[in-house]
Design a protein that fits this description.
heterotrimer, A alpha/beta (440), B mainly beta (245), C alpha+beta (301), B: 245 residues, mainly beta, Pectate Lyase C-like, eleven-stranded mixed β-sheet, 22% strand, C: alpha+beta, Alpha-Beta Plaits, 2 domains, seven-stranded antiparallel β-sheet
Chain lengths: 440, 245, 301
């Protein structure tokens, strides 16, 4: 096979991906819609390192000396806060975006290790409620499937202001995925492209959000924690306003957060990375004297126990996974390479979740494809992955001398880059320098 | 007692009535007692609420066949997520009246503020005065009958259900409407994206007659109304519709 | 985000109890605005040729008497400072513009909260109930008043950042909502000579109205102009020497309720704020239509 001549140079600005997209836009006249989160390189937890034990700090022994991982979410107002065994939850992903067996698997896996799952922009399915021991029910602008019976069946309520992939945008589900069942749950005609509202229909602004949260509490007799989820943008103000509006828990989703379907430009160019978002959120809570009183859950690009540990060190109470959970269940698996090739993609690159033709049976509504997905096996994979995340977090926390993962603190971190140092407000490794602090 | 009766006069008091004065009783207690009647549990079926004084979330989350009369003006989300209950407000209602109503009846003697019956999925919401902007926003099966007028963006993203307006409608009526049906007797200031006037056929006249009757409106002739619904041009993303997005 | 209230008296009874009613209205709005509170009260007009300034000092030991003496020396007469907490009202024997300019120049450490014939503006951080107490709001008698309770959105909770903002002589603005083009507009207005003390979006709206009026627009024209030039979500309540005006943006997501009896006209973000007024149950109440200016003023004799 002839190789490309060595004198050819690709443009960094107009690389092959960009050329393909411009020519696609010229052919089709509509923006590119895809799933997955931001794919470009961004400052992230990888740019931070943990300072393990040394002469001055002593580690914990593995096995014998415990490193606790339990978290309680919703201590502020709710009669029944959520008691989680691990500081990792499953983020909101809709039935509709995902197949029914995929939702079931998430519930099975999360329940096995003692954590929660979250419904998505489509309502609560009986499978998810049945298989998920702790279930957070989302209230979104669309209100698809919203009803008080499910609200009462839920363990917590999450008011979604936005998500990291598209802060300011609404849900999206294309016609091929609006199956009979999805259509019925969402009160939509089958097979059409769903349009979704970006604002809530009956409140706008934190002053009215406060009244809305009051109503939700009244309807559910003040039992359940109320979460407020925001996509990371003006995170400092958002978190303060969510506290003032009465949230028990705040979920901050950085721009790396995934989606099943959104315009590519929205995913890549709106919002801030998870790294500065965590710091801003913790600053906001601390200034209101509410850190740890109103719990903080952080999502957007959590992949390993290292990400978990660093997010906790910066002050989060827990993290949430979305994309990683789908991958754990088999999305983008190399075994499916042939099938990906047939639909114009490749393992490791597949992000056409909006098309609903997923050979793994996860982001599809096609019965035949969904039938390939074994929810029991999927559940086991989720449980395994969550266990690994927890073990990795504990390993790192023990190495830093912590008997509870919540005792990780920002002073356990250093940064590898100037951006990460400034964003996370931790010193550049080997220096005292935190860019932007003290005017330098 | 049918829904058409007692829509402007007070309910006939032939049975025991529990009176709750919000000037002395916390709202939490009222709502809890109403919730405790769910699942067919025994208890008073008729309630009267005094001195609401614009309080929010009054009689929200009802899940029982009870009747609640509210003597005065209420704030936001009165009768929110109502299921099986009947709530009559003898005054005005704030934003989000009967939001996400599942079934039952909610009647307001006066005016309703924004987003009345928002995302409602069943039952009937009747407003004897005017409803404001966004009446029936994102409705998913509720029937709404307004004796007066509605404000702008009413029926926005209305999915299913029926919205009847005896007065006028504001700008952008039925913007981005799906399969809901809208009937207006007065003037329509403007139609929203993909909302068009449609022919009023026999079956629509019959539907309208039934809705008006259920709302206790006897002095409106269905033939005087015009019907509005989706042109269904936005059901698939198409470049030609770029101007509508 | 916030709560706003306005009360316009049609009878002497209501004028006499204006402060009591305003306090009750503010109290109802404290949930939606817990960070700070402020009022503009129109009362005790200064005699012709004289004017009234309301001044704020961050210094709890501020020597207001010394300031009054200075003003007497400069402009004549013997002005007395009427002190409420951190604010003082002083009647000066000069036109408002001149008096204000002098204070700004001679005492940059003081903040001029308002200037004009009848207006007095008081605003402070802290809960509305505290504010009512600290400023003995219940005492006030006057012809009309505006009030505001604040939940700060994108700027800090400070005294300067609280509403009402004074846009000109006897003019003020309170706002519920969030503007989206105020940063560029602030720069434009700065070049037109308008001063800004905060990063607050409402201050920009107030500056915009002041600028339009300075350039010859009537209040109504200035408010109509804001529909074009201001982007975002807003319910505005503007105070003038004769009355007040209400305007909602065309999208109108933020609430507003108006009510009227033979004794008063009132405006509030929620009915709760109006429910505390005498005769509220029988009042005619309605919601302002978006994009339309509603104005009340007392007849000029």
């Amino acid at each position: 096979m002839a190789s490309r001549p060595w004198n050819l140079r690709e443009s960094a600005l107009f690389d092959r991906t960009v050329i393909a997209e411009i020519q696609r836009a010229a052919r089709e006249g509509i923006y590119d819609i895809r799933g997955f989160g931001a794919k470009r390189a961004l400052p992230h937890f990888d740019d931070l390192l943990l300072l393990g034990a040394s002469v001055s700090r002593y580690p914990l022994e593995g096995y014998r000396e415990r490193c606790e991982t339990n978290v309680t979410l919703g201590t502020r107002f709710a009669r029944r806060p959520l008691e989680l065994k691990i500081p990792v939850t499953i983020a909101g992903m809709s039935f509709g975006a995902l197949s029914a067996p995929a939702k079931e698997a998430l519930g099975r896996g999360a329940s096995e290790v003692g954590t929660s799952t979250t419904t998505g922009d489509g309502g609560m399915t009986p499978e998810e409620r049945e298989h998920s021991k702790i279930l957070v029910y989302q209230l979104l602008p669309s209100r698809y499937g919203m009803n008080p019976d499910d609200l009462r069946k839920a363990d917590a309520i999450e008011v979604v202001v936005g998500q990291g992939a598209k802060p300011g945008g609404g849900g999206m589900l294309l016609g091929h995925k609006i199956s009979d069942r999805v259509a019925e749950m969402r009160d939509l005609p089958k097979g059409i492209d769903q349009r979704s509202a970006s604002r809530h229909p009956d409140w706008t602004g934190p002053d009215d959000l406060e009244i809305k949260i009051g109503e939700l509490r009244e309807i559910t007799d003040w039992e359940k924690p109320v979460f407020v989820k925001v996509g990371a943008t003006r995170t400092y103000y958002d978190v303060q306003l969510a506290v003032k509006a009465g949230a028990d828990v705040i979920v901050v989703d950085g721009m790396q957060g995934g989606t099943a379907a959104t315009q590519n430009v929205f995913i890549e160019h709106v919002g801030i990375p998870t790294l500065p978002a965590v710091r801003l959120a913790v600053d906001a809570l601390t200034e209101l004297d509410m850190h740890r009183q109103v719990q903080l859950v952080v999502s957007g690009g959590i992949r390993t126990g290292a990400d978990v540990a660093k997010a906790l060190a910066l002050g989060a109470d827990a993290v949430s996974i979305g994309t990683a959970a789908l991958i754990a269940m088999g999305d983008n698996s190399p075994e499916l390479e042939e099938e990906y090739a047939r639909i114009g993609s490749s393992a490791g690159y597949y992000d056409d979740w909006q098309a609903g033709r997923d050979p793994a049976g996860i982001s599809t509504q096609e019965d035949e494809l969904a039938a390939r997905f074994d929810p029991v096996l999927g559940g086991r994979r989720i449980a395994n992955y969550l266990r690994v995340l927890t073990l990795e977090t504990q390993t790192l926390a023990r190495a830093c001398g912590k008997s509870h993962v919540h005792n990780l603190e920002p002073e356990d971190l250093v940064a590898l880059t100037v951006e990460a140092a400034a964003m996370a407000r931790v010193p550049l490794a080997g220096t005292d320098w935190i860019p932007g602090r003290n005017g330098d | 007692m049918g829904a058409g009766e007692g829509l402007t006069a007070g309910a006939a008091q032939t049975t025991a009535v529990e009176v709750v004065d919000l000037a002395v009783t916390p709202l939490r207690e009222l709502n809890q007692r109403l919730h405790d009647l769910a699942g067919g549990r025994p208890g008073t079926r008729h309630w009267r609420v005094l001195n609401p004084n614009g309080a929010h979330a009054v009689a929200c989350g009802i899940d029982a066949d009870v009747e609640v009369e509210v003597a005065g003006h209420v704030g936001y989300y009165c009768a929110g997520m109502n299921q099986l209950g009947t709530v009559r407000v003898h005054g005005n209602a704030g934003p989000g009246l009967a939001e996400n109503i599942m079934s039952g009846l909610v009647v307001v003697d006066g005016n309703a503020s924004q987003s009345a019956a928002a995302t409602g999925r069943g039952g009937l919401v009747a407003v004897n005065g005017d409803a404001a902007a966004r009446c029936g926003i994102s409705m998913k099966g509720v029937d709404i009958v307004v004796r007066g007028s509605v404000g702008h963006l009413s029926g926005f993203m209305a999915q299913t259900g029926r919205l009847v307006v005896c007065g006028d409608a504001g700008e952008a009526l039925g913007d981005s409407i799906y399969e809901a049906r809208i009937y207006v007797r007065g003037d329509v200031a403007g139609l929203g994206a993909d909302c068009v006037e449609k022919q009023l056929r026999e079956e629509h006249v019959a539907e309208l007659r039934d809705l008006l009757a259920r709302a206790g409106i006897e002095d409106a002739d269905p033939a005087d109304f015009r019907r509005y619904g989706s042109a269904r041009e936005l059901y698939s993303f198409k470049v030609d519709n770029a101007g509508s997005y | 985000m916030c709560g706003i209230v306005g009360l316009f008296a049609k009878t002497t009874e209501i004028e006499d109890s204006l402060g009591t009613h305003l306090s009750a209205m503010l109290g109802q709005m404290s949930d939606r605005g817990p960070d700070s509170a402020g009022v503009a009260v129109y009362r005790d007009p200064a005699p012709p040729g004289a004017s009234k300034l309301t001044l704020f000092s961050a210094d709890p030991l501020q020597d207001w008497d010394a300031l009054s003496a200075e003003l007497g020396n400069r402009f004549g007469g013997s002005p007395q400072a009427s002190i409420r907490s951190s604010h003082a009202v002083v009647v000066v024997d000069a036109e408002a513009a001149e008096a204000e300019a002098w204070v700004r120049g001679a005492h940059p450490e003081l903040r001029v909260m308002s200037a004009g014939q009848a207006i007095e503006i008081y605003k402070e951080t802290g809960r509305p109930e505290e504010f009512v107490r600290r400023f003995a709001l219940g005492d006030f008698r006057g012809s009309h008043a505006l009030g505001h309770t604040r939940m700060a959105t994108e700027s800090r909770v400070t005294t300067e950042g609280s509403h009402p903002f004074s846009t000109g002589l006897d003019l003020c603005l309170v706002h519920n909502g969030s503007l989206s083009n105020h940063n560029r507009l602030r720069e434009t207005l700065r070049r037109e000579g308008i001063d800004f003390q905060t990063e607050n979006d409402t201050e920009v709206a107030a500056g915009y109205l002041a600028w339009r009026i300075r350039e010859g627009a009537s209040l109504e024209e200035a408010l109509d102009g804001s529909l074009e030039d201001l982007d975002g979500f807003y319910t505005f309540l503007v105070g003038t020497v004769d009355g007040f005006a209400v305007l909602r943006d065309p999208i109108a997501c933020k609430p507003a309720v108006l009510a009227e009896t033979d004794d008063w006209v009132a405006m509030g973000s929620e009915w709760r704020a109006i429910s505390v007024l005498p005769g509220a149950a029988e009042a005619r109440s309605w919601e302002p239509v978006p994009g339309v200016v509603y104005a009340w003023e007392r007849a000029k004799v």
